[in-house]
Write a structure and sequence with these properties.
- The chain is an alpha/beta fold.
- The protein has one domain: 3-Layer(aba) Sandwich (Rossmann fold), CATH 3.40.50.1360.
- The strands form 2 sheets. The protein has a 6-stranded parallel β-sheet.
- Strand 8, helix 6 and strand 9 form a beta-alpha-beta unit.
- Helix 1 crosses helix 2.
- The relative contact order is 0.19.
- Bound molecules: 6-phosphogluconic acid.
- The site of 6-phosphogluconic acid (6PG) has 15 residues, from loops.
């Protein structure tokens, strides 16, 4: 499916635009089924998302949201490096999503990443059915960030996890971005989503965006191409400033 690239004048405008798209994704999902499944990334995404959603929360059906993490660091859930803690602090503690519908890393498995990945896959199965009935889960919405090296989720350049074609959730113990031990959704899961949105702001992403969007270099973020879904890039002006076309 073709991608759509939006350039906004500022990071605040990105947040406002993102709010409208998330509402659309939610409404589309609820017109087809009774829940809205969304995967959140770490980094700057929870803050941008919260800024947009909390500024105008009307229309959101929080009781229908099922929230997963696109990737998670293998640390306790109250650790400063935890993506869940970040999402909780920025957004989830401020909206009435039932806590049973927020799917976290199993805190008992922080020292056992292979088991933590398997456990997270099982949590996905409770919502999306089993691997014997569906090949890959279909998220209504996956919200991604992109690192300056072109990584997304915890899928880093030249890492063997990029080749994963079976599992829904992978793990790594050698992440170049600390902390080193993480679990992550795999590329086939991301590429089966109904809608995927990259939210990328700041001048330090400018050159990588040229590599991905103009030069089509095969960095991890460039391997996100939903098979049947829509792909959006939400950029602010500093991030988009090197691009030929947006
Ligand atoms: C993580 C993230 C990671 C992040 C990017 C972009 O847990 O490390 O999920 O993939 O989204 O590194 O981060 P920024 O938005 O902070 O640049």
């Amino acid at each position: 499916m073709p991608r759509t690239v939006y350039e906004f004048p500022s990071a605040d405008a990105v947040a406002t635009g993102l709010r409208d798209l998330v509402l659309r994704a939610q409404d589309e999902a609820l017109s087809k089924h009774d829940r809205f499944t969304v995967a959140l990334s770490g980094g700057s995404l929870p803050n941008t998302l919260a800024k947009g959603l909390l500024a105008k929360p009307e229309g959101f059906r929080w009781d229908r949201w099922h929230v997963f993490y696109a990737d998670e660091r293998c640390v306790p859930l109250d650790h400063p490096e935890s993506n869940h803690r970040l999402a909780q602090t920025e957004l989830l503690s401020k909206v009435p999503i039932p806590s049973s519908q927020v799917y976290t890393l199993n805190p008992a498995l922080v020292e056992k990443p292979a088991e933590a990945a398997e456990d997270y896959q099982k949590q996905l199965m409770t919502v999306f059915a089993t691997k014997s009935t569906v090949r890959f889960p279909v998220f209504d919405l996956i919200l991604l960030g992109m690192g300056p090296d072109g990584h997304t989720c915890s899928l880093f350049p030249n890492h063997a996890l990029l080749e994963e074609s079976e599992q829904w959730v992978g793990y790594l113990t050698d992440s170049p971005k600390p902390p080193p031990t993480r679990i992550t959704l795999t590329l086939p899961v991301v590429n089966h989503a109904h809608m995927v949105v990259f939210v990328t702001t700041g001048a330090n992403k400018k050159d990588t965006l040229v590599q991905i969007l103009d030069r089509k270099e095969p960095l991890p973020a460039a391997q996100v191409n939903p098979i049947h879904g829509q792909l959006y890039w939400f950029l602010d002006e500093p991030a988009a400033s090197g691009l030929q076309t947006t």
